[in-house]
Every structure is written in C-alpha cells, then in structure tokens.
Amino acid sequence: MYRFLLTPRWWGINVFVLLAIPFCVFMGSWQLGRFEDRVQDHRTATEQAASAKTAAARPLAELLPVDQKTSGAQATATGRYGKQLLVPDRELDGRRGYYVLTLLRTDGGKALPVVRGWLPGDADPAKAPAAPAGEVTVSGALQAPESPGANGVSAAGGLPSGQTGAISSASLVNLVPYDLYDAWVTLGHADSGMTAVPATAAQGTGLDLKAFQNLGYTGEWFVFAGFVVFMWFRLLRREAEFARDAELGLIPVPDERHSEQDAQEPASSPVQ
Fold it and tell me: Which tens digit of pLDDT belongs to each residue from 104-121?
C-alpha cells in the first residue's frame, strides 16, 4: 500500500521535508540565540550603568571611541564653553522640553558637546542659562552619537537657527566652527536650575522591538517546522487511503470499450 513512496513525486516530497525541517529548526534556534544575546546585553548594560554612577570619572581620551563598554562611563574634560545650541522635543519624566547643549572647547583643539541640562516647554534661547565663563572642568556620562529616528531622536529637519535635532558630529558639523569629538557628555549635576539629563543605554543593548521580533521569529520558524511535518503526514494519509481504496476496488474505473467507442465516433456536424 505504501509503494507510492518510491515514486519520483514522493521522492521529491521526502527530500524537501528532510531538508526543510532541519533548516526551520536551525533558523528558529538562531533567532532564539539572538534574543538571548540581547537579553544578556541588556543585563550587562544595566549593571554597567549602575556601576558607572559610583565609579570615578576618567579622562575623556581614555574612553574614546565610544562603544558598548564605555557608553555611560563617567568622563571628565577641561576647556572653555563656546557656542550654545538647543535640542528640541526631548521628553523627561513624561514632560516635553529641550536640552541645553553647549560646546566645550578642550585643550586638545576639539570641541565636546555637553548637555548641561533640560528645560520644559518649547525651545527658547532666552530661557536657556548662559554657560559659565572661563576654564571649567566638566564631569558626566559619556554618550555615543545619536542617530536621527532612533531612541526617540527626532528625524525632522528645517529647525530654526541655533537648534539641532540630534547630538552627533555629523549633525553639528555645519552648525559650529569647531572640530568635534564623535561623542557627547551629559552632566551629572545640571547647571543653573536645569534638570540633569540621565544617561541612555548604548544602542542595541535594550529589550526593544528588535529583541522581541527575534523572539517572534523563533516561534514562527518552529511553527513552520511543525507545519511541514503536519502536511507530510496529511499527504501520506490521503495517498495511503487512495491506494487502499484502489486495492479494494472502491474507486470507479472507466469502461475501456465505451471509452474507445467514444473516441472512434466522429463528431456530429453542426446543423446548417
């Protein structure tokens, strides 16, 4: 009854099933591994952020370039404040406001973007406190350059003069006349009554939508594997039932003599 398994058609079906199931299992396991890696990165970033708050600040040069290990670390730099910009549409504790960003011109010749604090409401240069004069030493959490459209950073353009949507050397290069560090610092203690901006985790270390997409893809691949097995058994059962019915003579066979006679009979011509 199962001799049909030796036919070319079923050889093709069996080969497909034998290849599809391991592939689906492999892809599901890979997606699960990606999710577990993101969970571990999130746990590591959380522990790192907690330890960075109590760790001694280190010179900026020792922490560059910014990566997942140095993001959030306490950095210190000395210089003089220069041009000041505002970063609108930034939320803090559920309230809408803006960052006060001032460029610190360091002794090394480059300028370091420093977020001196946050103020509520629409970005208003008149409300932003002026930066301290003279040489200052700042200390705060080192942050990686922002990417427009990621982590709540606005991707909108056409901002008024004196404003920037993202904090990065790429966004600031045409707004300030300095060479820039590809990093920025948020002060642990804000200046002049402003609210300090907390450090954010490095990109790719949080349990964001991508992490749960990996988990969803894991389930999909294992469902695909189960579906392949289900369809194979369903086709096998249907083919076996058809073969059994044929052996029992339950499937009607056309009358060969009648079929030959119909084939030899000329077609009637249409009525003129």
Answer: 999 888 999 999 999 999
